[in-house]
Amino acid sequence: MAKYLLLKHYRGAPNAVNDVPMDQWTPDEVDAHIQFMNDFAARLEGTGEYVDGQALSPEGMWVRSDGSGKPPVTDGPFAETKDLIAGWMVIDVDSKERAIELAGQLSSAPGAGGEPIHEWLEVRPFLEYAPTVTE
Amino acid sequence: MSDTADVDGSLLRALAPEVLNVLVRRGADFATAEDALQEAIVKALKAWPDDPPRDPKGWLITVAWHAFVDLARSESARRGRELRVDAQPRAGEVPSVDDTLRLYFLCAHPALSPASAVALTLRAVGGLTTAQIAQAYLVPEATMAQRISRAKRTVSALDLDQPGDLATVMHVLYLVFNEGYSGDVDLAAEAIRLTRQLATMSDDPEVAGLLALMLLHHARRSARTRPDGTLVTLAEQDRRRWDETLISEGVVLLQAALARDRLGPYQAQAAIAALHADARRVEETDWVQIVGWYDELLRLTDSPVVRLNRAVAVGEADGAPSGLAALAEVPADFPRRSAVAAHLHERNGDLRTAARLYAEAARDSPSEQERARQTRQAARVNQLLREETIG
Fold first, then answer.
1. What is the pLDDT of residues A76-85, one digit of tens each?
2. What global pTM score does this model have?
3. In chain A, what are the domain boundaries?
4. Between A26, A55, A59, which is nearest B383 by CB?
5. Reported ipTM
6. What is the CATH topology of the domain spanning A2-125?
7. Secondary structure in 3-state letters for chain B
8. Would you call A80 an interface residue with chain B, using a CB distance cutoff of 8 Å?
């Protein structure tokens, strides 16, 4: 088994094929999209491949230490040009091919006009634990 | 009761504070006694479904006492000291109501952070297991266990001769109630159970007000979400699905509390919930009275969230322009402000501003449910605008 992180971006990813902002869809299209996402997670739980997932607020900031005894320095909100992650899902699958297959399904979530969004998702393998058998 | 299998653990949880008190009365220190109780609860959850005890309380006391002796022995061995506890318990006196109340005060001590107080209260007074609490708050069990032992270290170091702080206890129970439902433990129901118990020990009308508030909100629960988990707003709820029994209990409690003429924020919030419960259809809502209660609430506890909710009520009672004027007193970046502003602008006929604000509300939503709802609102108004342009 191998764990993969699927990342969805608010911005920074290449443009989706069906690239219409969600508030310009019809209410029914919004419902259909949410239903698709819920069903997707439920299906992965059913196949034993779902680990975890969370949506992230677009708000946030950069933080770094400014030396001992001083409060950390913050910088934010994020600039409009910054790559921004919208959410993540961790899956535990048999192969890289399966990870790609699932990300492809997730990317086909319905959007404006009921057509698939075909958005770009980032698929990142976890670094694994060192195996027990090494020779 | 002796033949009850107690499969849902409710009897077990109800007995928890009593058992803890018995241990403390027999000379056990709070922190170790609480660990021992937890061991007994975990054992009971395993053993009782197949082999229900004849005397559940006696069973718990015996098992918890043995666990305490074991824990104390290993602790004293670790410190290289003589074992000070007797292996055989002294004849235990019956713990009084005051003992249980003291437990509430201890577990929700103002020295604890809210998250720690919540965890300790649920475990020591509520009788939940660490695993159940961790699951309900979506953190790893080890994290929750650590949070609880740190909380116990904090309270162990305190001088406990001072009177307890009822306001903190109520706040902790309110936080538990508001966390709602996730996992196999129903936190809202647990909060109601613990507040009910608190109400038998304290005659403060605010405790009754808090209980009424919880019951009145709990009554709407099945109407509040759709099968797919999306939120249904108060205005859209099917009011036939509200729980009449809970509503009447809440209203009776509230009326008795209000009659004592010591108003507080929980009673005022319960009064608002009761007025909503009283309207069989949303159009029958007495918004003028609701605004009156928000004014009381502002007087008792001025906060942006009260002002925000008041603006909604003012918009219903006196029209959208008045609501927008009331909204001007809420800070611009306050959560849910743009959602309320969008709603008021829509009612005022300004669809373009409403659509923009709904989209803004979706972007700034603190929860996924709220985001889905506001996105749908933006989509709906934008659709109206498109139809307007075509028509």
1. 888 877 889 9
2. 0.87
3. 2-125
4. A26
5. 0.84
6. Alpha-Beta Plaits (3.30.70)
7. CCCCCCCCCHHHHHHHHHHHHHHHHCCCCHHHHHHHHHHHHHHHHHHCCCCCCCCHHHHHHHHHHHHHHHHHHHHHHHHCCCCCCCCCCCCCCCCCHHHHHHHHHHHCCCCCCHHHHHHHHHHHHCCCCHHHHHHHCCCCHHHHHHHHHHHHHHHHCCCCCCCCCHHHHHHHHHHHHHHCEECCEEHHHHHHHHHHHHHHHCCCHHHHHHHHHHHHHHCCHHHHECCCCCECCHHHCCHHHCCHHHHHHHHHHHHHHHCCCCCCHHHHHHHHHHHHHHCCCHHHCCHHHHHHHHHHHHHHCCCHHHHHHHHHHHHHHHCHHHHHHHHCCCCCCCCCHHHHHHHHHHHCCCHHHHHHHHHHHHHCCCCHHHHHHHHHHHHHHHHHHHHHHHC
8. no
